[in-house]
Amino acid sequence: MSNVNNPSVARPLTKRFPSRVLGTIYRNTTGYPLYVAVACSSNVIGVNIFLAVSDASATPTTQVAEYYQDATVASGVGTLSFIVLPNDYYKVYIILGGGNVGSWVEWY
Predict the structure, then answer these.
(1) Please, which residues have CB within 8 angstroms of residue 5's CB and are 6 or more apart in sequence?
(2) Do 85 and 27 form a contact (C-beta atoms < 8 A)?
(3) Residue 90, Cα to own-chain centre: how many angstroms?
């Protein structure tokens, strides 16, 4: 029996460390709201901007988080955290500068 529609019934929280790639669209198929935390590592001197988008479209465009860094050295880490509704799509990508994912964690 699922408790997704009964907030008075507690359920254990599931934590996962999926293998994710910047710029790829993913879908929340858990049936629960998904909390996502992404540690973004910049590797370019200057401005680095990472964005997270999420909505019901298969090509999401609604911005839900941003990490902006104006770096004087080519290293820096910032965390994007956001919630993805059940069945919504989500993506984290770089719009300026360069970098990669240090870690990606999801809870539902």
Answers:
(1) none
(2) no
(3) 7
The position carrying tokens 């590797």 is 43
Both tokens of 25, joined, read 């669209």
Provide the CB-side half-sphere exposure for 65 (13 A, CA).
21
- Confirm whether pTM is higher than 0.90: no
Each residue's pLDDT expressed in tens, for the chain with a length of 108 residues: 455 566 666 778 899 888 899 999 999 999 999 999 999 988 888 889 999 999 999 999 999 999 998 877 767 788 999 999 999 999 999 999 988 998 999 999
Query: Residues for the chain: how many in total?
Result: 108
Annotate 43-71 with b (16+ C-beta within 10 A) or e (fewer): ebeeebbbbbbbbeeeebeeebbebebeb
Alpha-carbon gap, residue 64 to 44, rounded angstroms? 24
- Beta pairing partners, 42: 76, 99
Which tokens belong to 41?
A: 């590592």
